[in-house]
From TrEMBL, chain A:
It is found in: Cell membrane. One of its GO terms (biological process) is aerobic electron transport chain. The lineage of its organism: Bacteria, Bacillati, Bacillota, Bacilli, Bacillales. Its main location: membrane. The chain crosses the membrane at residues 29-52, 72-92, 104-122, 142-166, 186-206. It comes from the Bacteria. The keyword Repeat does not apply. GO terms for cellular component: plasma membrane. Belongs to the cytochrome c oxidase subunit 3 family. It comes from Lacicoccus alkaliphilus DSM 16010. This is Cytochrome c oxidase subunit 3.
UniProtKB/TrEMBL annotation, chain B:
It is a multi-pass membrane protein. This is Cytochrome c oxidase subunit 1. It comes from Lacicoccus alkaliphilus DSM 16010. The chain crosses the membrane at residues 28-49, 69-90, 111-130, 154-180, 192-220, 252-271, 278-299, 311-333, 345-365, 385-405, 417-439, 459-484, 555-574, 594-614. It catalyses: 4 Fe(II)-[cytochrome c] + O2 + 8 H(+)(in) = 4 Fe(III)-[cytochrome c] + 2 H2O + 4 H(+)(out).
Length: 208, 639
């Protein structure tokens, strides 16, 4: 294998910097494999939720149809879907070796993700007021575990993105840092896709 | 960093080297040592069970202690012995078989082994901290939620930590086999050991997350006040059974497929023939992996899922016999007409065919759902799964230990002692478990700590216990063999079995830390054999001799694993004395330090992850001159 310089000059910048090195290729394949495992993880969570949906100890607990409002879930969905789009812009600029714009769009992605997270926390607090908590019923446990695991993934993604923006600020763009940014983007798309399923299975089917 | 093998090093630096290593060959040794330790531990627990059951009305173990011992025996053997020992051989062989200098993610490889070790230690600390888990290795929720004290918490947290390690290792092997193959090593030229590792790793990727979720449900119910399994709050304990077996059945194939891989290598080597029906073997491996996910409810025929569900799962289960049968016949056809050499590994391989087939046949008997109502929870089941796990997996581990020992340590285990171990173990195994089929059919239930005199179980149980002692003697002979071999330290050279076919045997022993001075060019299935027959017996290089890249060592995997280990104590003691906690722990003394410990532990892990992400880890270059010197030395030593 020829010696690989990580800092590639602009004229030799590859079309796919994220997989230009062996490490980059490994990361790409490895992370897709990890996402396959994550799919099985969320599938188990959805199955648990569907098994325990509306399963409460007594009549004074609120059920899904009374609890969920679609407008809030819609706004959250829009925020997260848009953040997925902005992460695509970041990758677009990464492939064009435009570091500043990549950082900018990553920053916008973080802001949109943080907006989503804030609304989710607001939603949880509201439900808490209705007596729908993690400990109130099996339904509550399953709901918070499913949505909470997704929310935890969002938090991890936000910290990850912020760390990447900060660490790369000094280092700039290289085929080494490009692989890291691309891996984050894959992750961010994945949690976006999971949310689409949550919106459908939890919220839409919940109010129908 | 790079060091020459001639350098003598102090104990401290050797320990530090192993704590920080990212070399797959050293990680294989870590898996072998830790897995071997847990294998002996699980074996001692097995002996305690058989001593207790040797005679009726025995009081060697109390009923409660018996439950702890059977739980820990099963859990230890599956999660802490069988799987890590298979990982030892995967790590030792796969990168060498595909012509790679290391795995795709050396750092994650290290993280995997340390998570397993810390998880295993945590689980076994239960013996010293108020009692081990006692709800069986399946830990069904209706039992485990009610189990008082912290035993079940050790099970949940220990398996969560070591399970994360297994998942990481699975991802690593999938990636390694996809991206790191040498030029010419196409998928259909990969040795069966590599193929079975690939399929088993894919199974890990899809099977372990459901277990993770199942254990989280159990953890949250026991430690954080949720209601997944609390029926009075709307919970449902059958969810655990589903999640556990969605993991648990593929787990059986995660264990047996690499065992099949080891045996496929051994048959071809010692019959001195190309593996019969290679492509059918690959196809059968993939098919078994695929079916493995569609049969989990055959563990739950008596739950009452209904005749439709039972019928579907019964048919799917029977279908697995087809690819497995293909394999059995291919192995027989490989031996057929071969020039067989009866080495210790070959003896295990030959014994494996009838032993494993017997386990398979009883499996088909249980697949018939109505008949299974008779076998369920009886000793027939115990006999069945020990025939497949011991007759398949443990035979493969012992065979692999003898077969791959020279590759890992550049010495040979003593063949005479090896054969003594084999015969003792082979007879001991059949003596212990054959009779248990009949015990089951006569009505003896599993998981009972004793039985009454005059039920007709006495003689059979005594025979079973006698067999267990034969196996114990066999393991003692094996340990003596290992100690003698290490003490003598008689080095062997390249291709110690003389009939090596696959790429790993083309390497000098001990294998250099960079594996291949030049990445070889692969010209066919069994590449080393191809070069022996058609070339000059040496692998052709696919690249000129140049500097190449190797990964840096790191202590961070140990720190990350230690963080989770600490956090587990915090989580476990968190519900003590809380009013929202389940009855099993709400009466214990409150532990105000639990939450800080939980936070500190998780914080350690996440900070270590942050450091890993923040710092550039570019590795280092091995210089051409160093490799040339090694090659010259080898040339001189070879003459």
């Amino acid at each position: 294998m020829a010696e690989m310089e990580y800092n590639v000059p602009t004229e030799r910048w590859p079309a796919h910097p994220e997989t230009a090195t062996q490490e980059g290729k490994n990361k790409f394949v490895g992370f897709w494999t990890f996402l396959a495992g994550e799919t099985a993880l969320f599938a188990s969570l959805f199955a648990t939720y569907l098994a325990l949906k509306d399963s409460v100890p007594s009549d004074d607990h609120m059920l899904a149809s009374e609890l969920f409002h679609l407008p809030l879930a819609f706004v959250m969905t829009m925020l997260l879907l848009t953040s997925s789009l902005t992460s695509v812009y970041a990758i677009y600029h990464m492939r064009n070796n435009n570091f500043q714009k990549m950082q900018l769009w990553l920053g916008i992605t973080v802001l949109l993700g943080a907006g989503f997270l804030a609304l989710e926390i607001y939603e949880f607090i509201e439900y808490y007021g209705y007596g729908h908590t993690f400990r109130s019923s099996a339904f509550g446990s399953a709901f918070y575990f499913l949505i909470g695991t997704h929310g935890f993934h969002v938090i991890v993604g936000l910290i990850w993105a912020v760390l990447l923006i900060l660490r790369n600020a000094k280092r700039g763009l290289s085929v080494y840092t490009a692989a890291k940014v691309n891996t984050f983007a894959l992750y961010w798309h994945f949690i976006d896709v999971v949310w689409v399923f949550i919106f459908t299975i939890v919220y839409l089917l919940g109010v129908l | 960093m790079a060091q020459t093998s001639a350098q003598k090093k102090g104990v401290g630096s050797v320990i530090w080297e192993y704590l920080t290593t990212v070399d797959h060959k050293k990680i294989a040794i870590l898996y072998l040592i830790a897995g071997g330790f847990f294998f002996v531990l699980g074996g001692i627990e097995a002996m305690l069970i058989r001593i207790q059951l040797a005679v009726p009305n025995n009081d060697f173990l109390s009923a409660g202690l018996f439950n702890e011992v059977i739980t820990m025996h099963g859990t230890t053997m599956i999660f802490l012995a069988a799987m890590p020992l298979l990982f030892a051989f995967m790590n030792a062989t796969v990168p060498l078989q595909i012509g790679a200098r290391d795995v795709a993610f050396p750092f994650l490889n290290s993280l995997g082994v340390w998570l397993f070790i810390f998880g295993g230690i945590f689980l076994n600390l239960s013996w010293f901290m108020g009692g081990a888990p006692d709800a069986g290795w399946t830990s069904y929720a209706s039992l485990s939620i009610a189990s008082p004290g912290h035993g079940i918490d050790f099970y949940a947290l220990g398996l969560q930590i070591s399970g994360a390690g297994t998942l990481i290792s699975g991802i690593n092997f999938v990636t390694t086999i996809i991206t790191m193959r040498a030029p010419g090593m196409t998928y259909m030229r990969m040795p069966l050991m590599t193929w079975t590792t690939l399929v088993a790793s894919v199974l890990i990727v899809f099977a372990f997350p459901p277990l993770t979720i199942g254990i989280f449900l159990l953890m949250f119910d026991r430690m954080f006040g949720s209601n997944f399994f609390l029926v009075e709050a709307g919970g449902n304990t059958i969810i655990w059974e589903h999640l556990f077996w969605i993991f648990g059945h593929p787990e059986v194939y995660i264990l047996i497929l690499p065992a099949f891989g080891i045996f496929s290598e051994i048959f071809a080597t010692f019959a001195r023939k190309r593996l019969f029906g290679y492509s059918a073997m690959v196809f059968a491996t993939v098919l078994i992996g695929f079916y493995g996910f569609m049969v989990w409810a055959h563990h739950m025929f008596t739950v009452g899922l209904g005749p439709v569900a039972n019928a579907i799962f019964a048919v799917a289960t029977m279908a697995i016999a087809v690819p497995t049968g293909i394999k059995i016949f291919n192995w027989i056809a490989t031996i057929w007409g071969g020039s067989i050499e009866f080495t210790t590994p070959m003896l295990y391989a030959l014994a494996f065919i009838p032993s494993f087939t017997m386990g398979g046949v009883t499996g088909i008997m249980q697949a018939a759902a109505p008949a299974d109502y008779q076998y369920h929870d009886s000793y027939f089941i115990v006999a069945h799964f020990h025939y497949v796990i011991v007759g398949g997996v443990v035979f493969a581990l012992l065979a692999g230990l003898h077969y791959y020992w020279p590759l890992m340590f550049a010495t040979m285990l003593n063949e005479k002692l090896g054969k003594i171990t084999f015969w003792l173990f082979f007879f001991g195994f059949h003596l212990t478990f054959l009779i248990q089929h009949f015990l089951g059919l006569w009505g003896m239930p599993r998981r009972v700590f004793t039985y009454l005199d005059g039920q007709g179980y006495n003689a059979a149980n005594m025979i079973s216990t006698a067999g267990a002692f034969l196996m114990a003697v066999a393991v003692i002979v094996l340990v003596v063999n290992i100690i003698m071999t290490i003490a003598k330290n008689e080095r062997v050279g390249m291709d110690p079995w003389g009939d090596g076919r696959t790429l790993e045997w083309s390497l000098p022993l001990p294998v250099p830390y960079y594996n291949f001075a030049q990445i070889p060019l692969i010209r066919g299935l069994d590449p080393y054999w191809v070069e022996k027959k058609e070339g000059n017996g040496k692998m052709l290089p696919s690249e000129s001799l140049t500097d190449f890249h190797m990964p840096n060592n790191s202590i961070l995997p140990v720190v990350m694993s230690l963080g989770l280990f600490i956090a587990a104590f915090g989580a476990m003691f968190f519900p003590d004395g809380k009013d929202w906690a389940i009855d099993a722990v709400s009466g214990l003394d409150p532990k105000p330090w639990a939450l800080p410990v939980l936070i500190i532990g998780l914080g350690t892990t996440f900070v270590a992850m942050g450091i890993r992400s923040w710092k550039d880890d570019l590795g280092y270059y091995v210089k051409k001159e160093e490799v040339e010197k090694d090659l010259e030395e080898l040339e001189r030593g070879g003459k």
